[in-house]
Amino acid sequence: MSEDNNKKGDRVYTPQWAASDMIATFNPVGKVLEPFKGGGVFTDLKPNWDWCEIDEGKDFFDWKTPVDWIISNPPYSKLRPVWRHAATLADNIVFLIPLRNHFSGYGFVKEGREYGGIAHIRLYGTGGKLNFPMGNAVGAVHWKKDWKGPTTWSDYNEE
Fold first, then answer.
1. pLDDT in tens, 91-134
2. Alpha-carbon dihedral sign for residues 59, 117, 107, 42
3. Is the entire prediction scored with pTM above 0.85?
4. 143 and 93 Cβ atoms separated by less than 8 Å
5. Interior/surface letters 36-50, b for 16+ CB within 10 angstroms, e for the rest
6. What's the CA gap between 79 and 60, in Å, rounded?
């Protein structure tokens, strides 16, 4: 999986304000994994979290230990295989993604529903607001295993 980990758009670092807001919004507790540490914004805020980072010799696809939560800004070109692996490990998955990357393909939407469903989506505006190289809508999507409730939405509002 890691042979082309330098694909354009796959190294998009999460701003500190967005990581802080995601942690506050979703409140991950228990054993938490950040599978694509990158610059370390999540683990700087939560140093007790486990992490993977291919550039540091820890490939997420080699991780086998179950966790309660996975929270990350994953490589977009590998979103579906990343999500599939995450779904084998965690009861809660939160990914900061361009929303089209999940919703444009029926197969991915169906897989998410079979896992449980989307409990919440936190909207952050366009990619430009996060200094991402695209103008698409970006949100933190929380898939919850065996979720049967509604999907709720919230907006990040700068204060």
1. 999 999 999 999 999 999 999 999 999 999 999 999 988 888 88
2. negative
3. yes
4. yes
5. bbbebbbbeeeeebb
6. 12
**Residue 28: which residues within 8 A CB-CB, separation 6 or more?**
68, 69, 71, 92, 94
3-state secondary structure of 18: helix
Amino acid 53 reads: E
Nearest Cα to Cα of residue 51 among 66, 32, 73: 32
When computed from its CA atoms, the radius of gyration of the chain, rounded to whole angstroms, is: 14
- Which among 70, 60, 125, 65 is positioned nearest to 95, based on CA atoms? 70
Whether the pLDDT of residue 39 is over 90: the answer is yes
Q: What's the rounded Cα separation, in Å, for the pair 80 and 132?
A: 20
Residue 7 pLDDT class (50, 70, 90 cuts): low
Neighbours of 128 (CB within 10 A): 12
Which residues have CB under 8 Å from 131's CB, separation 6+? 15
> 67 near 50, Cβ under 8 Å?
yes
Where is 159: in which H helix or E strand?
none
Q: Are strands 137-144 and 90-98 parallel, antiparallel or unpaired?
A: antiparallel
